[in-house]
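Homework-ish question, so no full write-ups if that breaks the rules, but can someone show me the predicted structure for this set?
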Amino acid sequence: MNNSQPTATVSLTPLDEADLESPLSYSALSWCFLAYGVAIVLAIPFFSQAAFTVAAFCHLVFGGAITLGMHRYFSHDTFQAPRWLRFYLALTYTLSFDRCGQGLISWAAAHKFHHAHSDRELDPHSPEFGYWHSFCGHHLFRRKDLYDFDKYSRYCPELVSDPMLVWFDRQRNIWGLQIVFASLMFGAGGLWGAAALGFDWWMATSFLVWGIFVRYAFTQTLHSILDTLGHGTAPMHKLPDTYGTNTRSKNCLLMWPFHLGNEMWHNVHHAFPNHANNGGRWYRWDVDSLAMKTLETVGIIKGCKWLTESDLERRRKRTAEKRESLPAR
Ligand SMILES: [Zn+2]
Ligand SMILES: [Zn+2]
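A: Not a homework solution, just the prediction itself:
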C-alpha cells in the first residue's frame, strides 16, 4: 500500500555559494511568454462553451494535483496511497506544468527549503525578497541547487528511490507529456466540433487555447497570488502569527472562493506541516481535506494525521504565553 520510504533526515543546506546562483531559464521564460501571450490574445476570439468547460475541469483536476498531490502527498507525506493513485497524482501534477514545468522532485526539494528556512535567505520564494520574486521570479530565475537533479536529488531520497517519480521529474518527459497532452486536446476539439468524419479546425484551436494556455495562465496565476498572500504580502501583512511559527505565513481567507479553501490556512500549515487538514476548526474547511477524508473512509488511502481544535488551542495558548513572558520592548 505505502510506496514511500520513511522520510529521511537530510541536510537542507546548499553545498557551496555557487548553488545559490539563479540564472534566467530561457525555456521557462519562453513558456511564460507563449502561455500568457496566447491566453491574452486568443482567449476571446477562440472562446467556446465546450472549451471553457474542458479548461474549468482541467483547472480543478490539475489544481488538486498541485495542492493535494504535489504539496500534501509528495512533499509532506501526509498520507499513504496505493500505487495507482501515486501514479495518477504524479501524472496530473506533471501535466499541470506548474511553475513552468518544474519536476515533482525539484518542487518537493524547494518546498522542504521553504519550510526549513521560511522567509529567510534560503527560502526559495518568500515575498520577503520582493513580490515579483515570490510571484514568478523563482520560476524564471532558477536556483541551481533546486533545478539541477544531481544537487536536489540529495534533498529528497524518499522520492528519488522511486524510479517512476524520477521519470516524471525529467525535463524531457515533462515537456514531452505536455506536447502529447496538447496534441490530444487539439485533436479532441477538432473531433468534438466536426460533423460525421470531418475535423473542425476552429474548435480544435479553441480547445488548445483554452484547455492548455488559458487554463495554465489561470491556475498558475492563482497559485502564485496565493504564495505571496499566504506569506504576508499586503493586505495580509498585518495578520498575526497566531500559532508561533516565526514566519510571515498567514491564514488568508481572501482567496477562499477561488481556491475552495485549499492552502488558505497557511499559518496553521506552517505550525503543523504534516497534518492532513490545515484548518483544524469546523469553519476552516477545504476541499483537499474533504477529499482525503473521503478516500480514507472508503479505504483507498491511510495514515492521515488529523488536526483537532484542541491541538490548535494548545498551540495558540503556548504561543500567547511565550509572548507574554518576553520582556517588553
Ligand atoms: Zn509557506
Ligand atoms: Zn507545505
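Now go work out the reasoning yourself. Hint: Residues 71, 75-76, 111, 115, 269, 273 surround zinc ion (ligand 2) (CB under 6 Å).
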